[in-house]
């Protein structure tokens, strides 16, 4: 089962689409649609851009801020590498990170992987649910984190404990209302934490 894209519910689709193209050079992987679905606090997910070196992180975070994003975690070095977290104008949380601590080549804006991290209450139960749907586990760290194989997917899916994901994003874990996110993949279903999937083949530009 593959993920072709994710659809974000936004107040202003034209502005959101413009943001993702100018900030992150994303077009096909991120779709937007108008919605006034109520939501408050943490929406239960983050989107991550994995890149090869710090200069790419700086470029993408810088362009996101220039286009109206707000900082949740300033770009910095850590034990794991280098990265930062921003909130897009539509409310979605984005992390841009690399495992490298030094540049190894000319600066680029190349994105190696787009990852959708779902914050779930019970990682083991959600893992079983997704395995039953046909996903293949790539990495698994007990009841903390699961990453699914994504060789043919435009978007990689991972599961993280909700409170841990919120902490990683720099926000409080509490939230109510709509996730304002739909996963565009190979099936139509809703997972144990309320994240909805729809067939990618049914989408139009």
UniProtKB/TrEMBL annotation:
InterPro entries: Glyas_Bleomycin-R_OHBP_Dase (IPR029068). Gene3D superfamilies: 2,3-Dihydroxybiphenyl 1,2-Dioxygenase, domain 1. It comes from the Bacteria. PANTHER family: BLR2520 PROTEIN. This is Glyoxalase.
């Amino acid at each position: 089962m593959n993920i072709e894209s994710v659809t974000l519910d936004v107040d202003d689709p034209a502005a959101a689409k413009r943001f993702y193209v100018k900030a992150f050079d994303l077009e096909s992987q991120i779709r937007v649609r108008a919605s006034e679905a109520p939501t408050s606090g943490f929406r239960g997910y983050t989107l991550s851009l994995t890149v090869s070196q710090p200069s790419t992180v700086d470029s993408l975070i810088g362009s996101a801020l220039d286009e109206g994003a707000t900082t949740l975690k300033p770009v910095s070095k850590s034990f794991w590498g280098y990265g930062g977290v921003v909130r897009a104008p539509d409310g979605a949380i984005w992390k841009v990170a690399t495992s490298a601590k030094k540049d190894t080549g000319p600066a680029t804006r190349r994105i190696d992987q787009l990852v959708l991290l779902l914050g779930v209450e019970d990682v083991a139960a959600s893992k079983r649910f997704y395995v039953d749907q046909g996903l293949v586990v790539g990495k698994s760290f007990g009841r903390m984190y699961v990453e699914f194989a994504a060789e043919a997917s435009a978007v990689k899916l991972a599961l993280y404990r909700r409170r841990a994901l919120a902490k990683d994003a720099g926000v409080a874990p509490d939230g109510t209302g709509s996730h304002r996110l739909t996963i565009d993949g190979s099936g139509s279903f809703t997972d144990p934490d309320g994240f909805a999937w729809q067939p990618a083949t049914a989408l139009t530009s």
